[in-house]
Amino acid sequence: MGTFLITGATSGIGRAVALRLAEDGHDVFGVGRDEARGEEIEDASPRITFLKCDLSEPDEVEALMDGLKDQNITLDGLFNNAATFGRPGTPERLPASAFDEVFDLNVKATNRLIQRALPLCATGASVVNNAAIVGHVKFPPMLGPYAASKAAVIALTKTFAHRLKGKVRFNALCFGPVDTPLSHKLYGGEAKFHEAMTHHFRGNAAKPEEVAPVVTFLLTAGSSYLNGQAITIDGGYSLS
After folding, report:
1. I need a labelling partner for 162 at 20 to 30 A (CA). Which of 39, 44, 100, 184 fits?
2. Percent of the chain surpassing pLDDT 90
3. Angle at 55 (CA atoms; ends 231, 57), nearest 5 degrees
């Protein structure tokens, strides 16, 4: 069994992935900012350890990874899942500052975590980055900074995959709409989100539990020949 580090682990896709890995017998370090939700996920499985960290703060990321290093932790996988949509707005009017918060978390923190995690990774370990379809096949005009950040995550994924040449694998998952609190916030509330999803091919978005097995597959040895890919998981949403 392996040991995995999951960011954004206290809700949505990250939580579903952490629970799935734990159910499969793996040990999980789940990173998040909300201590109450961190306690909840620890209570859900004795194999999950919550680590409090604001990933947009470089010093906190350094302290997080120093702690794992001091414990002589060997990682079999990392799921960079935590992200922010930022402030929606028309691209021709968004100030440059609108990119700062989004890129600090979605790109810079992801890169920083990868850099610090690599010395802890076992040979054959896997890094999966949440890239979202807006960085790959759908480019909503009101989410310019978010889309740009996710396109950067795909480029980062492929760059690291080329550099590590299979010693550590890197893949990006480009999720379509998933029924999470973050998605609800983007659409202005849960009811509005579900109303919008009636236009999806199947009439509703994915549940986190539906996409979690794809992440755990990529994190583990069954996907050993998948490397450097950006894979769309959207139920056909991007075809419309």
Report:
1. 100
2. 77
3. 140
